[in-house]
Amino acid sequence: MEATTIDEVLTRLTTIIDESLRTGDRTGFFASLYYKVTAKVKEGITKNEFEDGARMEKLDVVFANRFLAAYDTWQSGGMPTTSWQMAFEASKKSSVLVLQHLLLGINAHINLDLGIAAVQAMEGLDIAGIEKDFDSINTIIGSLTYQVINEINHISPLISFIGFNSGNTESALVQFSISNARDGAWCFAEDLHKKTGADYTACIAQRDQGRIGRNVAIRVQVSSLHAAIPNIPIGVGRQQLGRKERDTSK
C-alpha cells in the first residue's frame, strides 16, 4: 500500500530500518539516510520554508513511494527498476562499501525517481511550477548526505582516506551523485512531462537503462580502495545513522 502522507512515509521507513537492524540487511543504511531527508522536509513544511507546503508534501510522498515500491518489489522477489536492482544487489555483497551502497541508492533515487515524481506531482500543470521544490529536495539530500558521511567517518575514520569527509564538498563522487545529478534529473523531468502513453514509458526505460553505466562507475571507482577502508558493522552503523535520529526527534 502506498503512503499518502509524510507521516506514513516515516512509519514505513522506521519499519524498514528496524527490520534491517534485526536481520543485518544493509539496505537499512539508505532507509536511514532517507528517514533524515523526509523528517527534514516535514520540518520545513511545518516552518513554512517552502513556496507551497501542500505541494511539497505531495512531491515528497510521491518521491518516497518510488523507493518504497522498489524496496517492496525487491523484498518479494520481483524486479524493480534496473537502477534500484543494482543498488539492492550491491547491498548483499560484503565487498561493496556502505558508502558505495548509499551512492548507488542516491543515484537511482535522484537520477530516475525524482524526475518521475515531479511529473506525477504536476500532472496536468506546468512542470516549471515545481522546480524550486525540486531543487529544495536535492539540497536537503545533499546536506544530509554530508552529515551521514561525517557520521560514517566517526565509525570508520579511514574513510577520510578517499576524501569523503563532511568538509570536503569537492569530493568527485558525492558531487556527481547529488549536485550534478540535479540538473540532469530536471532535464529528464521536463522531457518526461511532454510524453504520453508508450513514449512516456519508453522515456523512463531509457533513463533507467542509462543509469547502469553510472552505477558501475560508482562501484568501480571506490572498490579499489576497499581493502584500505574497513566496512561498518551493520548494527552499529544503522543505530548511528537511523535510530539515533528518531530518538532525538521525539
Average pLDDT taken over every residue: 78
What count of domains describes the coordinates? 1
Largest sheet: none
Please state the overall shape, judged from the principal axes of the Cα atoms: globular
Question: Unreliable runs, pLDDT <50, ≥5 residues?
Answer: 155-172, 216-250
Per DSSP E runs of 2 or more residues, the count of β-strands stands at 0
Proportion of residues in β-strands: under 5%
Helix and strand element order: HHHHHHHHH
Radius of gyration: 17 Å
Task: Give the helices and strands, then pairings.
Layout: H1 6-23, H2 28-46, H3 53-75, H4 82-91, H5 98-121, H6 131-155, H7 172-193, H8 197-223, H9 234-248
Helix pairs in contact: 1-2, 1-3, 1-9, 2-3, 2-6, 2-9, 3-5, 4-5, 4-8, 5-6, 5-7, 5-8, 6-7, 6-9, 7-8
Name some characteristics of this structure:
250 residues, mainly alpha, 9 helices, disordered C terminus
Description:
This protein is mostly helical and 250 residues long. It has one domain. The chain is built from nine helices and no strands. The chain has helices at 6-23, 28-46, 53-75, 82-91, 98-121, 131-155, 172-193, 197-223, 234-248. The longest helix has 27 residues, at 197-223.
